[in-house]
Design goal:
241 residues, 4-stranded antiparallel sheet
């Protein structure tokens, strides 16, 4: 099991008036193929910026970021095999569930028979096969996110990025969706990077956790390592919340 993502002294910046502000500050880490890596930290610490950097979406950067041995900057977006699920429901409102899930395959010019087979198989895996003819406005919050996950997974990505995807769901549904992510990870053997504010969610999902503060990595380790041996006062206090 090798490194799928690697960051070396990577920084990302955003422009504020005439100056550039550091959003991610010289982070170095790897994401191993097949693992679930969870990013946690207070609001504004750089979690989402770091996640978007994995998609090559940050214009001003320094250091290096690699996907499968190739720099993310030089890799073509469509070839990176990276899928993304956001907190906001991002389904196409005029399309049915079937059409939303099928959309990435249509862009890839997938033959219609194969497209239909894959869409129906993915819908069955996500337990939304009975919703295929509905429009997004007819779906609940949890159903929206299942469709978004199905659409992300349909092109068989090697890694899927989740940006607080269940933040707007009630606790019982959050638990169900968390279990779904674990099942998908096992079933599809897909690498997962997951951003969350929910520490119970982080500990339930993660093989390893990155704790961020002010754009930098405060600690990286397994849930047990971080719980048993916090390396700073910040980490210790953060996990007491």
């Amino acid at each position: 099991m090798g490194n799928l993502l690697e960051f070396k002294k990577f920084s990302a910046y955003y422009k504020q008036k005439k100056d550039y502000v550091v959003a991610v500050d010289e982070v170095s880490f790897t994401v191993d193929e097949g693992e679930i890596l969870v990013l946690v930290g207070p609001s504004g610490c750089g979690k989402t910026t770091l996640l978007k950097s994995m998609l090559g979406m940050c214009a001003t950067t320094s250091g290096e970021a690699y996907f499968n041995g190739e720099t993310i900057k030089s890799a073509k977006k469509g070839d990176k095999q990276i899928a993304y699920v956001a907190q906001e429901y991002s389904l196409y409102p005029t399309m049915t569930v079937y059409e939303n899930i099928a959309f990435p395959l249509r862009i890839m010019h997938t033959p219609i028979d194969e497209l239909d087979k894959r869409v129906r198989a993915m819908a069955k895996l996500l337990e939304i096969d009975w919703l295929l003819s509905r429009k997004p406005k007819q779906l609940s919050g949890g159903q929206h996110q299942r469709v978004a996950i199905a659409r992300a997974l349909i092109k068989n990505p090697r890694i899927i990025l989740f940006d607080e995807p269940f933040a707007n769901l009630h606790p019982d549904l959050r638990f169900q969706m968390r279990e779904l992510v674990k099942a998908i990870h096992k079933e599809q053997n897909v690498t997962v990077v997951f951003v969350t504010h929910d520490l119970s969610e982080a500990f339930a999902l993660a093989d390893r956790i990155i704790v961020m503060k002010d754009g930098a990595i405060e600690q990286l380790g397994t849930p047990k390592e971080i719980e048993d041996n916090p390396t700073s006062k910040f980490v210790k206090e953060f996990f007491k919340k």
